[in-house]
Amino acid sequence: MKLFIKSVLMLSVIWTSSCQQQKVFTIAQTYQEPVDPSPATNQNWSAVPQGLQASVTSTNIRFVKSEIPKIEVQSTWNGTAWKGERSAAQLVLWSKDSLTEVNTKISDFKSDSGATLPASIATINFVKYVLTDVFDQGCGHRKPEDFPSSLAADALEPVNSFAIHAQETRPVWVTMDIPQDAKPGTYTSTFTIDVKGQASKTMAFSIRVIDKVLPQASDWKFHLDLWQNPYAVARFHDVEPWSDAHFDLLKPIMKRLADAGQKVITVSLNKRPWGGQTYDQFEAMIEWRKKADGTWTYDYTIFDKWVQMMMDLGIKNQISGYSMVPWGNEFYYFDEAENKEIKVKAAPGSPEYKDLWIPFLAKFKSHLEEKGWNTITRIAMDERGPEEMKAMLELLNEHAPEFGVSFADNHKSYKLYPDDLKDMSVAFGHPVDAEDLKIRKANGYISTFYVSCADAFPNTFTFSPPAEGTFIGWYAMAADFDGFLRWSYNSWTENPLQDSRFRTWPAGDTYSVYPNNRSSIRFEKLREGIVDAEKIRILRDDFSNRSMTAELQELNQLVEKFNRNTKPEDLERLLEDAKKQLNQLAEK
C-alpha cells in the first residue's frame, strides 16, 4: 500500500511538473501575416529531418517562407564590434513537421578576462513576412495584380517566442548593443532554442570587442535625412493628430530614427507639399489664417511641439520646412471673411505668390528667432525645376536670406544656385563635381545623395537584397558625400504590416520601419552602413592626426572600391571583406 501511495505521489509530481512546464511554455501574441500569394511548389520537404532545424546564417540573406534554406548549417556565430556599436546576427529555423512552438533566450556575455556584459544588451526578434512585388520599371502608377507578388522577410517583431508552422522557414534577428564602457576582449554567450516536445538547441555566440569607441548617435557626423510622416502614425493607430496619445506613439519610433543618426526634422509649412503622393497626406503644421481686414496670423503650436519633441530625442541639427515650391504650386489657408479653407494656385514670381509668402516669412523669422531655431531652419524643396527655383530664391533672398535652402535635385541644376543650397542632395548616379564638393565643404554646406523609385540599385525596397542598405553608407564615403537622404521613413501604406506595395512605386518605397516601433531588416542594414561610414570618418581623422600615412592610404583605397554606380558581382563578400579590413585598421 505504501509503495502504491509512493508511486501515485511520484506520478503526481511528474504530472504537475509537466503541466507547469507546459504552462510556462507560452508563445508571444503577434499580428497575423498575409497569405503567401506564390508559395514554392518544388520543395522536397520530405527530405528534411524530423524536428525543428536551426542554423546561424548571414544577415545578408533574405529568406523565403516556403523555401527550404539553402545554407551550410552552423551552430556558432562570431562577430567583431567597437565599443558603442550595434552588432547583428541572423538565425533561421525551419521544420517539415506540424506546428512547433519555440522559446529563445540568450545568456550573459562573459569575456576571457572575467568581464561580463548582461544578456539585456541583446534583443531577439522573430522576422515576419510582408507582401512585396518587383522593381520592373521602377517609378510609375501600378496595380498590384499587374506585378508578381511574394512574401518578403522584413519586419522585426521583438518577441522571443514563436509558433513555427509545418513547411515554413522563419528567420530570427538578434541585435547586440555593446556598451561604450565595455572592456575590450572576446565575450561568449549561448543562444538557446527551447522546442516544445523536442530537445533544446544551443548556438555559441562570440563577439570580440576592440578598444575603439563609437560616439553616441547624436554626435555622428553622417548627415542622415529620412523624411518623417507623423500623420501616418495618427491614422494607423486611430488617434487624434497631435493629441497626447499621438505624441506617446511618435516618441519611440522617432527615437529609433534618432538612434540611427538622423539630423533633420521634417516640417510641413503648408498643407500637402507633395500633393497627394502618400497614403496619409501631410497637413500644415502651421495654421495660416487670413483676417477679414486682409492681415495674416499664424499659429505655431503644432510646429513648436513637434520640433521640440524631435530635439528632445536628439535630432537637432536642422529643420527642413516644406515647401515654398510644393507640387502643383497649391497653397491652403483659412479665410475668416469667407469662413472656409481656401486653396490657391500661386506660381513662384506671381503677385499671388508674393502676397502669400512675404508676410509669412517676416513672422516666421521672428518666431524662429524667439525659439533660437533661426540658424538651423532651411526652406526645403523636392525635385523642383530651375525656373520655379530661381523665382522662389529671388523672394527668399530678399526677405529671409539667413534660412538658405535644402534641395533634393534631380534636374542636375545645383550649379545654377551654388550659394543658396546650404543642404543639397543629388540623385544617385549623378555625382557632384569634386571641385564643387570641395567648395561646399569649405563653406560649411551639406552635400548628400538620395535614392528613389528610379533606382534598382542600391535601394531599400522590401525585395532589395539587405546588403544594399549597407552599401549606401560606404558609397557616401567613397563619393565624398556628407550623408544620405531618403524621402520615406514611415509614410505607411494602408496596411503596412501586411502589404508594402503601393499604387505608384515598388514595394517598400514609402517606408522602412513598421507600426508600434518595429524595425526592419532593411532599416537595420542601412543603419549598419551609416555606422561603417562613421567608423571610416573616425579612422581617417585619427590616421591624419597621427601622421599614419600608410594606414590612411590603405583605408582610402579600401573605401574607393565602393565608388561605383553599378552593383558589384559579389556585393556581400565585398562588404564582408571590407568590414574585416576596417576593423583591422581600427586596431593599428
UniProtKB/TrEMBL annotation:
All residue ranges annotated as the Glycoside hydrolase 123 N-terminal domain in the record: 57-194
UniProt KW Protein transport keyword: no
- What keywords were assigned to this record? Coiled coil
A Pfam family this chain is assigned to:
GH123_cat
Domain of life of the native organism:
Bacteria
Q: Which InterPro entries match?
A: GH123_cat (IPR025150), Glyco_hydro_123_N_2 (IPR053850)
**Does Metal-binding count among this protein's keywords?**
no
PROSITE patterns, per database record: PROKAR_LIPOPROTEIN (PS51257)
Name this protein carries in UniProt: Uncharacterized protein DUF4091
Question: Which species is this record about?
Answer: Gelidibacter sediminis
